[in-house]
Amino acid sequence: MLVLVAPGQGAQAPGFLTSWLDLPGVTERLEEWSAVTELDLVHFGTKADADAIRDTAVAQPLLVAAGLVAAQQLFATPGEVGRLAGAAAGHSVGEITVAAATGVLAPEAAMSLVRQRGLAMAKAAAVAETGMSAVLGGDPDAVVAHLEGLGLTPANMNGAGQIVAAGTAEQLAALTENKPEKARVIALKVAGAFHTHHMAPAVDTLAALVPDLDVNDPSTAYVSNRDGQVVAGGGEIVRRLVDQVSNPVRWDRCMETFQQLGVTGMIELCPGGTLSGLAKRALPGVKTVALKTPDDLEAARELIADTTSAPLSSADAVGVSSADQTAE
After folding, report:
1. Which residues lie closer than 8 Å to 287 by C-beta, 6 or more apart?
2. Rounded to 10 degrees, what is the CA torsion of 166, 170, 176, 182?
3. What is the pLDDT of residues 9-58, one digit of tens each?
4. Which domains does the chain show, CATH number per domain?
5. Catalytic residue among 195, 224, 246, 276, which?
6. Which residue among the candidates 92, 133, 224, 276 is catalytic per the annotation?
7. Quick check: is 92 catalytic?
8. Would you call 85 helix, strand, or coil by DSSP?
9. d(CA 17, CA 271)
10. Separation between Cα atoms, residue 199 and residue 38, nearest integer Å
11. Which of 80, 114, 120, 311 is the most buried (most CB within 10 A)?
12. Up-side HSE of residue 122: CA atoms within 13 Å toward CB?
């Protein structure tokens, strides 16, 4: 069984969309979404520096746009995702990418929502100096207890020996000085304590947008960050997308669900790498393809064919219709 996944904030890098603009229709699609978000996504994906794309209000729309560009090269419609992938999940903002890829939201609606999400979270992050650090290794229960003792939140339970702590600058400095036993601490280049109570104001902002959204049920099993459960209703998915802004990401439980569903292959949408790395440690034997450049598309198509035993049509392979480390 194939699982489609999308990474979260922190996966972006300067110039990561440059090679994707060589594909037919990609520039035009990004320009359409630029109009929706009032951001020059082509510029931010090709020429902007690391500081510019670290801005939460920029990074989140950029990541969703990148993931959808990649998805539309493999799947002509959300229905194709349902036929070829047995499940889908995104890490944090990647949940919006997957919501659009599986038809819960139209791409334009997803881009509008993620723009408001990024703005609201950036505003919430500006209230106090906060951030996030990855804790690698150590006993998970002991690490969580250690973090809570310092007043930090285990904001991302990523599995495979990785927990992301979030809190104030002072709390994170204390963590650097006082590490959990047998663990390493790496400061992450993000602009706030995402998935904690610090983001509560952003939840209210997004909740006000939900009544105006046109929502559909997903075309395949949608695995939620909240608890790793499969959610079948589009309305419930959108409610979870809103609440998840201030709740921890349980990617560990998502991977447990993939395993229970019988995953044998995983494709990580652009900019791929982080979730594939976690899967290699937590889901041994599962074949992974991380979409970093268009050169990776052929390997992804081969994995789809191997996993589903369903040959791709030319429409499946092109899929250009615009209609249809991760820390955050």
Report:
1. 264, 265, 266, 303, 306, 307
2. -50
3. 989 999 999 999 999 999 999 999 999 999 999 999 999 999 999 999 99
4. 2-125+197-318 (3.40.366.10), 130-187 (3.30.70.250)
5. 195
6. 92
7. yes
8. coil
9. 8
10. 23
11. 114
12. 16
